[in-house]
């Protein structure tokens, strides 16, 4: 499609689908993601924010689609960051939406210190669902901040983050995140885990290497 066709036909059609609550949530969610791909600008930020806000009465699937669309959109500014962090840190927000917000921050490769602090705070063993710390570690890997490698290596080698002793699954995702970042300082620590007992950690190490 030409740029003119996208603006004149495709974008208006997607907006009509998004705004029509009689249409199934799967289709409306897909339209939100398609809109982010068709028009990757700040023009429709307010629409994504409105759909995904904690006060929204939208179906969770539609909310999740709006959240991940913010990562696909690749608008890298403070407004998007603060909105996503508000979801990440809101324990009353549905778990899947919080995970999608972390993944969007990962897709944005947002290396702001507030992002790292929010993700690290998900690793203190206070989260109810295991998917939350897993998504936080996955987001760290996607962000790819090499300055955080020494800290992450210390988590791997000590098997803990602060007072929180990491499970085999959590250590596996630390390995995955380090493998995604790909810094050479993580090579030997990852290799050492191959001699450990954790099945998930060993498997992740093999893949990372």
Roughly what is the average pLDDT, rounded to an integer?
Answer: 94
Name the strands of the widest sheet in spatial order: 1-2
According to DSSP, the number of beta strands is: 2
Number of DSSP helical runs: 12
* SSE series: HHHHHHHHHEEHHH
Unreliable segments (pLDDT under 50, ≥5 consecutive)? none
Apparent shape: elongated
Give Rg in angstroms.
Answer: 19 Å
Helical coverage, percent range: 55-70%
N-to-C CA distance? 41 Å
Strand content: under 5%
Main pleated-sheet profile: 2 strands, antiparallel
Overall structural class, as computed from helix and strand content, comes to mainly alpha
Q: What is this structure's SSE topology?
A:
Elements: H1 3-19, H2 25-38, H3 45-52, H4 60-73, H5 78-88, H6 95-108, H7 113-121, H8 131-143, H9 149-158, E1 160-161, E2 164-165, H10 168-181, H11 187-192, H12 199-208
Antiparallel strand pairs: 1-2
Helix pairs in contact: 1-2, 2-4, 3-4, 4-6, 5-6, 6-8, 8-10, 9-10, 10-12
Overview features:
209 residues
